[in-house]
Structure prediction request, 516 residues.
Amino acid sequence: MQTDYKEKSTITVDENDVLAFAKKIERNQLEDKTFSEKIDEYIGGKLRPDEVLKIGTTPYCLRAVGANAIPLVVTQGVIANSMESSTIISKSISKKHTEQHNIPESVIKNIPQALRNPVLICKGNLRDTLVVISDLKNKEQQNVIVPMVLNVKGQHGRVNRITTIHGKKNIQNFLNKAIADNSILAMNTKKADELFSDIGIQSPQSTTIICFDNSIAYSTQNVKRPEQNLQYDNIIDKLSSDGKAEINDDGSFKINNDFYRELPRDDRATEVVPARHAMEIMQQLSDSGIEFSAVSRQNDNAAITVHKDKIDILKHTAENIAEKTIRQDDVKSSDSDKINPEYYNKLKKDERKVIRLPHNSGDKAISALQSAGIPFSAVKSEKLTSITVHKDNAQALDQIISDSSKQTAKEYINSDFFKSLPPEERLYTQISGTDKANELMSELKNNNIGFSAVIDKEKNSAKVTVAKKDTSALKKVTDSLFSRKAQKDFSDKAKSLNQEHNTRNIAKNKDNQHSI
Prediction:
């Protein structure tokens, strides 16, 4: 039988793409090997008590839903609370797991691979949290889920941190609620369909869910998304594989730095743009064959540099993308979400100062603008309020936002739960660092422990209150999250705080008795 080689010879593959693909496979394999070795050291009690285990760079699938391209880590406490007891050799490690946490060593070691290509990714219950549903199984044959908190302060910069690893009991109820709440952000189409079929749930039909296939572990090429929302788009993947992009642990970046250094100073022209526009601007410049360099700056900005002959093209590109963003916000918003749209249309492009804020802050800024008699226009999209003023009023708007932020330094969470608890049944705790507080609250939520909290952003601390009946459950959570030193600090602060409240309640009761 003669083989037709002619047809095969017509297939061509870009050699750079093959090399980039191979590099990503090698990087993933190295990260898997390193993590597996760290698990072996942990099981044997050979790790420093404060050492945090690095899973690897945050996978593409998590970046597709908004996570930064920074390290993804897990603490020894989380591993201890997740792994089956018989595996742990070190007597210094306390083990306090439920049946859902009964996860074999081999499954723990496969966590990095599972996170690169999960079944589903959902919003967490708290801000800046995600829940990944994997196809790994624990001893009870439950799907292993991996909740995490994003962009928190780590030992060497910002990280995304896993807060727990456990099998999901009653996953049908969890997914039914996720579908009803529209909290599913992304899914592997084939894997998700199989899971939904196995548990007797109809696959969600939402047009807002990002869909991907098995290639997500190595490339974002086969990702289908309702709108472009990757923080680092394909241009970054390409530049990274070519060694032209430096992405730091804190999310800051330098792009094509060699081009900047080699370009004579008198030939450089730079435009400062919002960081969220920078990726699309760079993509368009690259598509047009225009060389550039870029560097992240403070206040969520980026500086893009081109040859001075190309500055008009850069400015025009940046203006078009900014206009497109505003138009997209306008399209997504109904007429009832627009305030003074005619004022926006009346202003020329170079006269507009546009700023975007969370809805609560936006409402306060709008009220202050109205009180001050400053003309403005506003549009409310799904997540943000865009406010436009004349550039001459930009300073006044900045001052209004600054004053408003000082007034909203505290955030109250689950106040109704706090009010429902009698004073004598409240257990007060205090924790330094709002990032750590978010981790604690996420884990309390995952363990169905009721709580309330007051976040003091100015002091970077939080007071978290639970019911006294949940004292033991709270200790299990803090044991899994904190080092021994941090646990003692947490316990000492809680003891002092509760003594203070008890003294206050006793005095209050005496006053009430005297008044009677």
In short: The chain has four domains: 15-217, 234-325, 333-408, 412-515. The first helix runs from residue 5 to 9. The mean pLDDT is 79. The first strand starts at residue 53 and ends at 57.
